Amino acid sequence: MPEARDNAPVRDTQSRIGTWADHHLYSFVSSLGRVFRRPWATALTIGVMAVALALPLGLWLVLDNLERLSGSVQASRAIGVFLKQDVTAERSQALAEELRGRANVDAVELRTPEQGLQELRERGGLGEAIDAVGDNPLPFVLIVSPAGDETLLAASLQQLPEADLVQHDAEWRRRLDDWLRFGGRLVWVLAALLGLGALLVVGNTVRLDIQSRREEIGVLQLLGATDGFIRRPFLYLGTWYGLVAGALALALLAAAGLALREPVAALAASYGSGFALAGFGPGQVLTVLLVAAALGWLGASLVTGHFLRQTRPTET
C-alpha cells in the first residue's frame, strides 16, 4: 500500500500530461476542420493575408535579383588599372603581386591584352574592326578589389608610374548602394504595415468565430476550464490561417516568376548575359511559412486573450 501511494503522484502527472497532449491533438485537428467548414470565409481570409504577405516578399525578391543583375557589391567596387603600353608582362605580373600584398587590397586579377581582345570579339561585336587594326592595341589591365575605402585606394593607384588610366566609378556604386539600401528599408516598412494588416485580418476572423461560440465558452468557464484550454483551439485556427496564407503567397510569387522568367532571360540574352530570375531557397521558404504561421498565432492570441479577460467570471 505505501508503494501504491508513492506511485500515485507519478500516475497523476502522467495522466495530466496525456490529457494535455490529447487536447492539443484534438484542437489541432478540430481547428483544421473549422477552416474547411466555411470555405468562402476561409478563402477570403487566406486570400487577403496571402496578398499582404506576397507584396513585401515580392519586393524583396525583386531587390535580390536586381542586386545579382547589377553584380555583387564587391564586384561593383572593383577598380580597373590600365597600364601603359610599354609595360611588359613580367612587370605587370610583379605589380599585381605587389598590390596583393597591400592591406587595403582584397584581390587582384591580371588581364592580358589577348584576354581583352577575345572579350571584345565575343561581346563587343567588333571582330572585323579588330582584324583590320592588325597588332593588338590593348594594354595589360589590373582589376583590383578593395578591402577598405576604394576612393583612397583609387587615388593611390593613380600615382603608380605604370598606370595610364584608373577607372573607378565611385559615384555609380554609391548610388547603387543607396538605392539598394532604400529598397531594403522599404521592404521592412511594407512588411511591418502589411504584416499588421494580416494580423488584423486573422484577429477579426477569429473574433467572429469566438462570437459564434460565446455560449459554449461561457459554459466551459463555469465548469472551471482554464484560459489555456479555451484559447488553444483558436490559436491553432489562427496558425492554420497563417500557414496556408504563407503557402499561397509563395505559390503566387512562384507563378509570377514563371511568367516573367522567359522574357527576362530573353532580355538578358540580348545584352550577352546569362542572367535568370532566382526564387526562394528551401530555407527561405521554411522561414516564410514559420513567420506567416506565427502571425496567425499572434493575431488569434491577442483576440482570445482580450475576450477571455472581458468574460472571465467574477468571484462573489
Task: Summarize, please.
Forms a membrane-associated complex with FtsE. The protein has 316 residues and is an alpha+beta fold.
What does this structure look like?
Keywords: Cell cycle, Cell division, Cell inner membrane, Cell membrane, Membrane, Transmembrane, Transmembrane helix. Residues 189-305 form the ABC3 transporter permease C-terminal domain. Residues 79-152 form the FtsX extracellular domain. Its main location: membrane. With 316 residues, this protein is of the alpha+beta class. The protein has eleven helices and four strands. The protein has a four-stranded antiparallel sheet with strand order 2-3-1-4.
Succession of helices and strands: HHHEHEHHEHEHHHH
Number of domains: 2
Summed over residues and divided by their number, the pLDDT gives a mean of 75
Helix content: over 70%
Poorly predicted regions are none
Overall 3D geometry? elongated
Structural class: alpha+beta
User: How big a fraction of the residues is strand?
Assistant: 5-15%
According to DSSP, the number of beta strands is 4
Q: Mind describing the biggest β-sheet?
A: 4 strands, antiparallel
Number of H- or I-type helical stretches:
11
Distance between the termini: 41 Å
**Rg for CA atoms:** 32 Å
Numbering strands along the chain, what is their spatial order in the largest sheet?
2-3-1-4
